[in-house]
Predict the 3D structure of the following.
Amino acid sequence: MATATITASSAPAAPKVKAPAIPLAQRFLRVTHLLFLVLLGVQFIPDHASVTEAHTSWLIGFAVIVEAFTLAITPLFKKKEGLNLFLDIIGFIYGFLILWTIFTAKTALLPAALFPPFGKILAQTAEDAPKILINIKSSVGIILQGFILALLAAVPLGLILGWNARLGGAATYLSKFFSSIPPIVYIPYGIALLPTFRSVSVFVIFLASFWPVFAGTMSGVLHVDSKILDSAKVLNVSKPTMLLNVILPASLNQIFLGCNQGLSVSFILLTSAEMIGARDGMGYYVKYYSDFGDYTRTIVGLLVIGIVVIGVTFLVNRLQNYLLRWKK
Amino acid sequence: MSAAVALQTVPKIEVKHLTVNYAEKNRMFTALRDVNFTVEEGEFVSVIGASGCGKSTLLSVLEGLYKQADGEITISGKPLDGTGKERGVVFQHYSLFPWMTTRKNIAFGIAQVRKDLTKKQRLELADTFLEKVGLGEFGNKYPSQLSGGMQQRAAIARALAMDTEILLMDEPFSAIDAKNRIVLQELLLKLWEGDGKEPRKSVVFVTHDIDEAILLSDKIVVLTAHPGTVAEIIPVPFARPRDRKTLVQTPEYAEFRSHLLHLFYNDIAERIGGEEVVL
């Protein structure tokens, strides 16, 4: 009987290798949550006499939502490093808000016109939300249009020229010359060429994105492993199959490098252009209200631009990781 | 001579007076000099030799990838011209495309030779060949998720699924560990020998492993280096189907092997006496 038990237990199913679970205390007893409580506690200090619009309830509401979100996704982390990073970032936000509250609403040590209490920034964001959405739509719409046009032109052209050794050599030098021109200087010429601010913006963003994507595609094609090319050649693939099913996926990493570069230049360009001559867009929003000395809305604009750029970058990275999921 | 006899005597591959010169840093370098051999229909021919004997150059000429060669090469009597659909290739590395799953890699290979099949039929055919090489459960894995041995299995599956008359294999098992190499050799032997109902493929198999060459081949072409020339073409006298374990115990095997080793070492000894030492 005893022997049988031993035999049975000595041949268990292959154990699954699991990362050690993070203990509950390590998950939830963290300095970040202490900072949250401090942030709430600080709000009980009476506002400085000169401060009229602190909108403390907005700040408390914001902090509670952030904390609820933090607690909700804490159990989802599998690795300790990931959880630490996430909680550290939230901790920094709380710390920043504590200092911001003390130096603005509570002591008025910073001039109120330039440094509005954070609650006021939140309240203003909510009030302007419809206007902000229209501006985001305008900015992102222009960037997408210019950028997608650039992709559609640069990737096929880069593939064909990169694959053709002789034309590729010439194109590399030409693209070096054109990409060295800061795209912002195309704006005055664009204004002369095209009728509306929108079309000028799309044109400039097209130029700004085209060269990095084109250069990335060319360099991707030129650096495809010769063993991969040999493998395709001995399969007798047709020219279009070679370009679309072999060279394109093999160059994808470099193409994305060009895309990321093109996108970040596009955002810089567009917001600059919007500050010069637009009636819409996030750059316009920032410039317009700072001209009136409304620095609450200026800060709102800065923060929203940051969030939009991060959001777009995040989506592009997700797409990149998905399309390159076959890489180690 | 009658036409029928003439047809029978056309070899699958015929290499006549093949010479390959490389220009390297303003210096001419002869990789292969006056190489002659034939591969008959359904014959398994190994090309062996020490590193630098030009055996891989020889195979890239047969693949159609290397074109600056002098001499005459015919495939079924027709002059060789570039790559061709009648030749399937397995390389030492990177036969597979890293961005395609294993079954899509195989289906992609099939698609290049069988335009008549639908996508679904190609994938089904790919699955049957994955089963044959023991990768039935790994069809949806990417090559980077497989071991080197599994990648070579998949590469063999693709070459077989394309059902080409000729298989060219360039040191396909050289990068595999000793234990898995034996498993793969036996798998290849089994798949190539088949059940006797279908005609066997003509194979040119490049290797530097003497035992591998003896186990697999009908005929061994021994190359010596600097420049690469044929030292000897030796028919392998052992009957098929072959079994490694019984084969290696026979005195005939030992004698045959020592003859091949002698050709190898002669080559190396000559080079030690000369200007270059490769060991």
About this structure: The two ends of chain A are 50 Å apart (CA to CA). Residues 118-163 of chain A form the longest helix (46 residues). Chain A touches chain B at residues 225, 227-228, 230-237, 241, 245-246, 249-250, 252, 325-328 (CB under 8 Å). Residues 21-106 of chain A form one domain.
